[in-house]
Task: inverse folding
């Protein structure tokens, strides 16, 4: 259900509405159309139920609000995120990348 249907505060309703208008794409599609930096906006519920995948995403710096760089590969998507003093690169399958939604900036 939507935030408004749950009786959420007006501020949360406004943020949810703005997020709904933002142009986001699954990471696997975005990598094919726009290799380069994007911002992770959300992770689908399907991914959230996969503890191993969520751990891999977290360890790789793939979290909502974080900027990452995408590159399409034959098997999926290469995702690079800056973490502290260095960068972390992760390889995601097409299926896993389809659960992560990003926006170009």
Result:
């Amino acid at each position: 259900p939507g935030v408004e249907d749950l009786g959420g505060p007006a501020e949360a309703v406004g943020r949810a509405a703005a997020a709904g208008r933002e142009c986001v794409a699954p990471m696997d599609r975005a990598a094919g159309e726009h290799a380069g930096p994007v911002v992770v906006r959300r992770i689908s519920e399907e991914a959230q139920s996969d503890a191993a995948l969520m751990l891999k995403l977290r360890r790789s710096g793939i979290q909502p609000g974080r900027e990452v760089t995408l590159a399409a590969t034959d098997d999926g998507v290469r995702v690079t995120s800056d973490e502290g003093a260095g960068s972390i690169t992760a390889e995601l399958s097409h299926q896993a990348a389809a659960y992560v939604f990003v926006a170009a900036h």
Q: What stands out?
A: The chain has a mean pLDDT of 84. Helices lie at 10-21, 27-33, 45-48, 51-59, 94-97. The CA atoms of residues 48 and 55 lie 10 Å apart.
